[in-house]
Amino acid sequence: MTFWGRVVIVLVSMVFVVMLLLGGAVASNYKGLGNLIKVVTLVKGQYLYEVAPERLVEGAIKGLVGSLDDPYSVYLDKKTYSMLQEQIRGSFGGIGILVGVKDHRLTVIKPFAKTPAAKAGIKAGDIITEIGGQKTKDMDTETAVNLMRGPVGTSVELTIAREGVPQPLKFKLQREEISVPTVEGRMVPGENHIGYVAISQFTENTGNEMVQTLENLRQEGMAGLILDLRDNPGGELGSAVKIADQFIDKGPIVTIDYRVGKDITYSADPEKLNIPLVVLVNKGSASASEILAGAIKDTKVGTLVGTQTFGKGIVQTVFPLDNDTGLKLTTARYLTPNKHDIHKKGITPDMIVEEKTEPSAEKTDPQMAVALKLLREKIDR
């Protein structure tokens, strides 16, 4: 049997299974489903150009998922699925640098500590002119990142132009497993024992990073904390729950409300970090950020400062498919401890403070200023 014949049989089987699963509503519209087979047959026999059968099958899957009209439910091709898995894990095979395009040149923004790039002496501000022999002129950052990433143990050569160094520098770097830090913490200079922690996204590593960061700040004498979730797009649910548990001593953190199956409620363990807490949020705080912010607001263990959050209160599950592809499908919504559904609504801060939007020579952060004022008052009591 030809490959085309197998494709038609697969599609017929798909139609039959869908009719069995969905019952009368689909069976009554069997002619509409039959059109799928007709279209495949017409493309095979009449279309001007030859099309690979696997491309048609993939297109049919994309069309099915696209018909849900849900921007968060998507078919993931092999490349996209691999990138999503790396994002969730928070690690990948690479050399450990953050790059960007400045003045049309691929520039090192910063090397991450203890990575091949940092150990080799690559510095912020270095201009990458070649990656593995390929010129980087007019190269976009996505292409550059893909060239630098690869299997752990393999090598890549960078050619770098550095200010003050007349000759190009060449670095042959062996790729390692890179874990990009998602939590940055420090004591606020000139303040009375106030710590500051920013979370850029939630990966599988973020919860553990946060626990270690909080412990380090406590050893430095932290008596109050500013937690910055601004422009954090979310990510892995478990890390958000683990971080919320650092501040909440009892009761629910979040409830996952499924249409099919039993709901799941994540609850706090008794121990908590008992210090004054202010959380900064804005319209870029979404998904897992809102899970954390909503739990803190409902349980009143901290004060939310900033602007209305994004309003993504639904949960996606990633299902692996054949050929290293996947399906990200909306499977549930989440509810805050007080059972609030914030999807398409967002979370309103306890104190609404607008961000600075107009350019100014003065580097001020109105939301940060309010957070510091609140903590000073609480610590000095």
UniProtKB/TrEMBL annotation:
User: GO cellular-component terms in the record?
Assistant: outer membrane-bounded periplasmic space
- Cite the InterPro entries for this sequence: ClpP/crotonase-like_dom_sf (IPR029045), CtpA/B_N (IPR055210), PDZ (IPR001478), PDZ_6 (IPR041489), PDZ_sf (IPR036034), Peptidase_S41A (IPR004447), Tail-specific_protease (IPR005151)
Annotated Gene Ontology MF terms?
A: endopeptidase activity; serine-type peptidase activity
One GO-annotated biological process of the protein: proteolysis
Record key words, sorted:
Hydrolase, Protease, Serine protease
Q: Where is the PDZ domain?
A: 81-149
Protease as a keyword of this entry, yes or no, is: yes
Name the domain of life this protein comes from.
Answer: Bacteria
Read off the NCBIfam families from this record: prc
| Family indicated by similarity | Belongs to the peptidase S41A family.
PANTHER family cross-referenced by the UniProt entry: CARBOXY-TERMINAL PROCESSING PROTEASE CTPA (PTHR32060:SF30), TAIL-SPECIFIC PROTEASE (PTHR32060)
Question: Under which name does UniProt file this protein?
Answer: Carboxyl-terminal protease
**Gene source species:** Desulfotomaculum nigrificans (strain DSM 14880 / VKM B-2319 / CO-1-SRB)
